[in-house]
Write a structure and sequence with these properties.
Low-confidence stretches: none
Strand content: 25-35%
Distance between the termini: 6 Å
Mean pLDDT: 96
Number of helices: 7
CATH superfamily: Class I glutamine amidotransferase (GATase) domain
Radius of gyration: 16 Å
Oligomer: single chain
Shape: globular
CATH class: Alpha Beta
Length: 238
């Protein structure tokens, strides 16, 4: 089969658990290091699926690779090639498919409860899961693009995930590993310090103290979502 393309937009926002999942299931994947200047491919049908990771930038920034990525997402949607977006990745999917990305009422940084929507599509993706503590690191939010169904919400962000056909866009981070959380806490120390008064923000110490109890459950949620997502990947000749 053709590989799954994984797009990294910031050096410390790699694929995390999705890389472990794809490797364990013997699904070939190829990383595109957009943060290092690698070119966004033009044709989605060179791949069996597209995975977009997070990033420190906004989808509304004037960066040369953003229009190229939006065009690739629209190409994949037209060709029904499954897409999976994490945080910035979900925002890119929303914008490409007709949604808008705006400032969220509050920043969400750290662990926070997310609730699965009460609809059939959400149940298809999440199975018996009704709520869980996800990891968050965002100051913006996406609207639902036309035809999308809301899957998740949190107290501080109404649209935490959407599905549209085979495609899943998320605002929250289900891909986290212990190393990623530790790295983000170090890299985001100034942002955390400046926003500790916000109700949606935890200290680095609290995030790391809670991760040993919360991360195994988050990994289970990621497994559920990724397993459902790969059902949409049809074997494509290399």
């Amino acid at each position: 089969m053709k590989p799954v393309a994984v797009f990294r937009h910031s050096a410390n926002e790699g694929p995390g658990h999705i890389a472990l999942f794809l490797t364990r299931h013997a699904i070939p994947w190829q990383m595109f290091h957009i943060d290092q200047g690698e070119v966004v491919p033009e044709h989605a049908d060179d791949f069996s699926g597209l995975v977009f990771m997070g990033g420190v930038m906004s989808v509304n920034d004037d960066l040369p690779w953003i229009p190229q990525t939006l065009a690739l997402i629209r190409d994949a949607y037209t060709k029904d090639i499954p897409m999976l977006g994490h945080c910035l990745g979900g925002q890119l999917m929303s914008k490409a498919l007709g949604g808008v990305v705006t400032k969220n009422p509050v920043k969400e940084l750290g662990w926070g409860e997310t609730t699965v929507a009460d609809n059939d599509i959400a149940r298809e993706w999440f199975g018996a899961i009704r709520s869980f503590d996800s990891f968050h690191w965002h100051g913006e939010t996406f609207s639902l693009p036309p035809g999308a169904v809301r899957l998740l919400s949190s107290p501080y962000c109404t649209n935490q995930a959407f599905a549209i056909g085979k495609h899943l866009g998320m605002q929250c981070h289900v891909e986290m590993t212990e190393q990623m959380i530790e790295d983000w806490c170090r890299a985001g120390a100034e942002e955390l310090a400046a926003n500790l008064a916000s109700p949606g923000v935890q200290s680095a110490a609290t995030m790391q103290a809670q991760m040993h109890g919360k991360l195994p459950r988050l990994n289970q949620v990621a497994e559920q979502l990724y397993q459902h997502w790969i059902h949409g990947i049809a074997p494509r000749a290399s």
